[in-house]
Each structure stands twice: as structure tokens, then as C-alpha cells.
Amino acid sequence: MSKEIDLGDYDIGIIGLGVAGSNLARLLLPHLKVIALDKKDAKGDCFDESFHKPCGGLLSQGAQKCFANQGLSLPLEILSSPQIFAINTIDIPSKIGSYIQKCYVNMERHRFDLWLKSLIPPHIEVWHNAFFKGLESLPNTHAKDTGKPSYRGRFYVQGQYYTFNARYIIGADGATSYLRRFLYPHLKTQTLVCIQEWFKESNPPMLACYFDEKITPSYSWSMSKEGYFIFGGAYLHHHCSSHFKQQKKDLASIGFVFGEKLKRESCLVLYPTRLKDFVCGRDHIFLVGEAAGFVNASTLEGISGAMSSSRILSEILNRDDSDAHRSYVRATRILVFKTLFRAYVRYPFMFVPFIRRLVLKFGILRVRKGMHKGQIQ
Ligand SMILES: Cc1cc2nc3c(=O)[nH]c(=O)nc-3n(C[C@H](O)[C@H](O)[C@H](O)COP(=O)(O)OP(=O)(O)OC[C@H]3O[C@@H](n4cnc5c(N)ncnc54)[C@H](O)[C@@H]3O)c2cc1C
Predict the structure, then answer these.
(1) SS3 string of the chain?
(2) Same structural domain for residues 130 and 254?
(3) How many angstroms is it from 42 CA to the middle of ligand 1?
């Protein structure tokens, strides 16, 4: 192996260019010297075969609001066909379902990530295929912000190791964040295994979610995208494959047709249900997006949390705040509260079985029936 190459000093090192990392890089001003790394290549593919991020690709109203307040508009190529305005919400054990109106934007997640990355300005030094491998503190730089680098980061690109020094390190590395584990090794935030399979479309276009507390504490979903029928769910680690298989059988029994299977994807999603699961970082390391816990534990939506936390951090870093960490913790309090509020207060009627069955049975919020005689409509 060749010797490590030292890239020198930076103000900021961003680890991960998903939604949060790309948005942060987009918003940082040119006076900051920034290096940004992602293990995916420039086309968004990954040499790490285990990384195939399944994502619904649905922009919630919260995410749309982030786009609105950050002055962003989505190009047409990112949208996916069809756009659907109601979600068929089905309680599997009681076989009751209702279409409930929802204002999601259906988009192609991969194209969305690439587009967001394309907005990163040229003054940010972007490294693709760059696998972040570790971090060490530089001596005597934490107690007081001296403006000098506090950490030495290490990454490799196709067998060559590189190092860099940075004053701030940003963990935007998602659900399995290295930096989250590095800073909080004893924080055991629950994760769920998401499994998703793609089939040739053989059902009428539909967006649906399924609840069955015997199979998952979360939920599962299906959607139509550009001629594909996609079925996925979030499961406890134990028996995730068998529960996924069981749910496919349950869906077939209510009338879904699974055509030819084209691909299977899986990944972990963070399931932050406690206040302590939200962590902003410390000692010149900041966490943003899912790495910080900003994902709704009920709906598993995280794009709005990634967009908001990265915008908040960019404002603090751009003004060279002398107590950047405290400012970030303060400024993200509302976001923590909103994420927990949305998970526990806004959606409990769907996640508490008794309330859900009442809502579905009595047609509260219903725009039309989702099931008829035990079969999907
Ligand atoms: C099945 C599923 C469906 C979802 N559906 C929706 C949805 O419909 N709507 C919604 O709003 N949210 C959805 N989410 C949540 C959403 O995808 C995430 O919350 C969001 O992507 C978080 O953004 P992020 O930037 O924090 O992390 P990510 O988007 O995961 O980005 C992390 C980045 O870090 C990089 N990285 C990781 N480790 C390293 C390393 N060691 N070195 C270098 N780079 C690294 C990765 O390559 C990646 O680019 C879904 C999640 C799942 C699992």
C-alpha cells in the first residue's frame, strides 16, 4: 500500500453527501475552506455492495415547506409518474382500509440526491468514492476554539489513504453514522431493517400503507413509480426476512399481484423514539440529518429533518459563531420537538391499533373506501 497523502488544513470536513451533507455544502459561503466526502461515486452508485438505500421518494408537506423557505424548486426530471393524492391506509388484521388525502410529491430518490449534489458550488472540494475511515483529535485544540484544526480525518479512495485536518467535522453520514457511534458509543438508538422489492407493475397505480402490529412496530408501504410496483417495510432485526415474506403473502391474500421481481434493496433506518436519541455532536463535531436523529419514527420521513438541520448549521458556520456548538444545540431544539411531536402526537391515530381501527371503520378522514369484502379497491 502506498503512503498516506496529507491534504492539509480545512475549516470544515463534511462526511456524507446525502440530503443533509449536500444541502449543507450548497449553503456554505466561499470564505470557508471545505472538504466534502462521500463513499458513493459521482453517479451515486456505491462500491460497498451492501449499500442500496431504499427510499419511498415521497416529499412530505414538511419537506416541501423546507424547499419553499430555502428558495428551492424541483426540476421536472426528478418527479416520478404517477402523482397520487390519496394514500390507501390498510389495517391488515381487520382488513379495513380507507383512502386518506395526502399531498406528497412522488419523486425518484436517486435523481433527487444527484440533483441536490449538483447544486454544490465549485468552492467546495468534493471527493467521491471516498470512504471515511477514522478520526483523531489534534492536541490541545478543544478546550477553547483557537480557530485552528481540531481533528485529523482519514479516508481512502480506491486503495489510497488520505488525511486532512479540519477545525469542524460534520457527520452527515446517515443512519449508520460513523461519527454518531464515535461520539456516543453507549447510545443505543433502536434501528429497523427496511426491505424493499421492485416488481413490474401489475396492480392499478396506488400509494398504500399497511399496519400490522404482530409483524412490525412501524409500518409497510407500496407505491407505483414509473411502471414499477414497489413493496417495502420496516421490521425489527429479528425475523425481518420472514416477516417481509409473510407480509407479501398477506398482501396477495387481499388482492395484490406480485409480478416479476426486478430487485431487492435493504438498509437500516434510525428509529428515534426518546429525547436522548437526538444528538447534535460535541467538541467541534456536529451531526446533521439522520445521523443526528432527525427522522420521524412514525412515518420514517427524514428529508425535511435533513434539509432543516443542515440549513441551521450552515447559518452558524457561515457567521463564524464563537460558540457554534451551543448555538446549534439551541437552534435545533424546535426541530427535535417537531420531530417527536410529529411522531407521537400528529400520527398516533394511525399507529395506535385501537384508534386506527376506529378511524378506518367509521371513515374518519376517508375520501373513499380502500377495501371491499376483504379485497383491495
Ligand atoms: C426505506 C426508507 C424509505 C424512506 N422514505 C422516505 C420518504 O419517502 N420521504 C422522506 O422524507 N424520507 C424517507 N426516508 C428517510 C430519508 O431517506 C432519510 O432520513 C434521509 O435520506 C436522511 O438524509 P441524510 O443526508 O441524513 O442521510 P443519507 O441520505 O442516508 O446520506 C448519508 C450519506 O453518507 C454517505 N456515507 C455514509 N457513510 C459514509 C462513510 N463512512 N464515508 C463516506 N460517506 C459515507 C452515504 O453514501 C450517503 O450519501 C426513508 C428511509 C428509508 C430507510
Answers:
(1) CCCCEEEEEEEEEEECCCHHHHHHHHHCCCCCCEEEECCECCCCCECCCCCCCCCCCEECHHHHHHHHHCCCCCCHHHECCCCCCEEEEEECCCCEEEEEECCCEEECHHHHHHHHHHCCCCCEEEECCEEEEEEEECCCCCCCCCCCCCEEEEEEECCEEEEEEEEEEEECCCCCCHHHHHHCCCCCCCEEEEEEEEEECCCCCCCEEEECCCCCCCCEEEEEECCEEEEEEEECCCCHHHHHHHHHHHHHHCCCCCCCEEEEEEEEEECCCCHHHCCCEECCEEECHHHHCCCCCCCCCCHHHHHHHHHHHHHHHHCCCCCHHHHHHHHHHHHHHHHHHHHHHHCHHHHCHHHHHHHHHCCCCEEEECEECCEEC
(2) no
(3) 16
